[in-house]
Amino acid sequence: MTRPPHPRRTDLDRPSAPVNPPGARPTIRPEMERGLYIAASGMLAEQVRQDQLANDLANASTPGYKSDRVSQHSFARELDLVNRRSGAAVGTLGAGAIIAEKRTDLTPQTLKETGEPLDLAVAGEGYFQVQTAQGVRYTRDGSFTADAQGRLVDQAGDPVLGADGRPVRLNADGTVDPARVGVVALTNVAKAGDGRYTGTPDRGAETGTVRTGAIETSGVDASRTMIEMIGSLRAFEAGQRAITTIDETLRLASGQVGNLPG
Asked: A single GO BP annotation from the record (predicted)?
């Protein structure tokens, strides 16, 4: 009787050999080194996220502040795992995380009445124009004041510009006419620091109206941001524990090498 041919065994069928067979030198698998990189990249990504969350929390009471959002993405796939017998995809092997995008939430926030005649707020879309040493910058922070020349200025002392591009001057009674304050819509908005932005004016776009005696509240939800901060800290600590575990494993493996005869 003819025996049926023995089925050919593939790498996936074969039992895995022990890491260190008796008498053999200990080996350090690539997975250990890869694990260090994965844990370290995750910790670096969480550190960037924590910096962003801390900055948001510090500006939870800043008028007109816009919060940021950081998203993470895995590195390009390092290896596709395929079953050699069937050709079916088994999965992928990741190689860590990076910061994929940092985006600012520019959604207009609620307005808070202050009763101060020089406090202004944009109800809707648009930004105030401010003349700075670096050129025209834009802001949603309308907590303005007056300088010695009777001009409307921001907290840094830079003049607020009107629709004609000139500094806005106060009325004789110390108030300001909101119709004279210039508000522009922007595209390609980017943070420039100190609550200011850069961008490309879109003169044809519709803008909101200027209200006096009110300011826009901060775009930071302090409670949610604190929860996200705690979650980020836990993820950072998990990366630390992973590195500690791998480091201990490598230390033990190195010790075994020194104890081998010959």
From this structure: bacterial-type flagellum-dependent swarming motility
pLDDT tens track for 229-250: 999 999 899 988 988 888 888 8
| DSSP per-residue letters across 156-222 | TSPBEEBTTSSB-B--TTS---GGGB-EEEEEEEEEEETTEEEEEEETTS---EEEESEEEPPS--H
Q: Is 235 left (phi over 0), alpha (psi -120 to 50) or beta?
A: alpha
Confidence (pTM):
0.71
Contact (CB, 8 A) for 184 and 203: yes
Gap between the Cα atoms of 98 and 71, Å rounded: 9
Read off the tokens for 136. Answer: 């025209």
**In 3D, which of 259, 234, 236, 219 has the Cα closest to residue 69?**
219
Same domain, 121 and 175: yes
Q: How many domains does the chain have?
A: 2
- Based on the domain organization, do 64 and 101 belong to the same domain? yes
Q: What pLDDT is attached to residue 57?
A: 95
Distance CA 256, CA 9 (A): 33
pLDDT band at 36 (very low <50, low <70, confident <90, very high): confident
Give the pair of three-digit tokens for residue 74. Answer: 């895995």
State the residue for tokens 């201990």.
248
Q: Which range of residues forms the domain containing residue 210?
A: 111-216
The rounded percent of the chain whose pLDDT value lies above 90 is 55
How many CB atoms are closer than 10 A to CB 240?
12
Contact by Cβ (8 Å): 249, 39: no
Query: Is 181 inside a domain boundary?
Result: yes
Q: What does the block give as tokens for 67?
A: 């919060």
